[in-house]
Amino acid sequence: MPTRQTGHAEIDQQHAILESMVGQLSEFCSEADLDSNAVCCNCSSIRQQRCNSSLASITSELTAFLIGHATYEERMMGLLPDTPSCQAHIKAHKAAHEGISKQLKKLSVQVVNTSPRASSILIWQVIRDWLGDHATAFDCRLVGLSKMGAPEIDFDGELVAMLDQHVFPNRPTMVKTSSTSLVLQRKRLEVRGRFESLSTAQRAVFWLVISGKKNREIAEVLGVTVNTIKTHRAAIFHKMEVGSVVELVKKADILR
């Protein structure tokens, strides 16, 4: 069932992308298309390993996108006026974002000993239910606050213009919506989510790595050991899902 529309073009596009990503989980098992009673134990161990790898990739992208989505909305919240109504909403809204993040981390541990198909169904149900409830309880209210607590802010006018200029240049809603723009938006928010998952120290190393500095140079700049930089670098590569500095630079370009 489609998520309720908020009336804010950018958030609604993000919801549409999230729904398509959740849809990947609901259609995860190709064998189920042929046999609704298909179970993973009937597939070879190699096939199951491939499915687990594919599921891990989908879940990783979904988790990163959700972080990016939360970051976008929380920056919007930062532009709300300091009224009791707005501040109460901000607190509850952020808690909801943190809640789904914790749920996904918990699920990633639980599904290790579960079949790929069962895991995909479980994650699909959790994200689908959260997205619908979240849109109704929080995202629609975020947009509606412009009429309740902040009549001077036009969320689809003045606020969006502020976001365009200061926070999110090249927003897809500034151009005609197309499948290409949605793909780019999905990638941008996914990369943003991965970057937001980095610690403060890792982010400092991130920018120095893409500037072309070597480990020893970075260590001197930050006043730490080379081994510490190597540890941060490995964590950055893992969280950003890259295998080289060239790939990391490409993702940094998306962030910009």
Describe this structure as you would to a colleague.
- The protein is mainly α and 256 residues long.
- The protein has 2 domains: 9-174, Four Helix Bundle (Hemerythrin (Met), subunit A), CATH 1.20.120; 199-255, Winged helix-like DNA-binding domain superfamily/Winged helix DNA-binding domain (Arc Repressor Mutant, subunit A).
- The chain is built from 11 helices and no strands.
- It has helices at residues 9-26, 31-34, 45-77, 84-110, 116-148, 158-166, 179-196, 200-210, 215-222, 226-240, 245-255.
- Helix 1 packs antiparallel against helix 5, helix 7 crosses helix 11 (245-255) and helix 9 (215-222) crosses helix 10 (226-240).
- The protein is flat and about 60 Å long.
Keywords:
256 residues; mainly alpha; Four Helix Bundle (Hemerythrin (Met), subunit A); Arc Repressor Mutant, subunit A; 11 helices
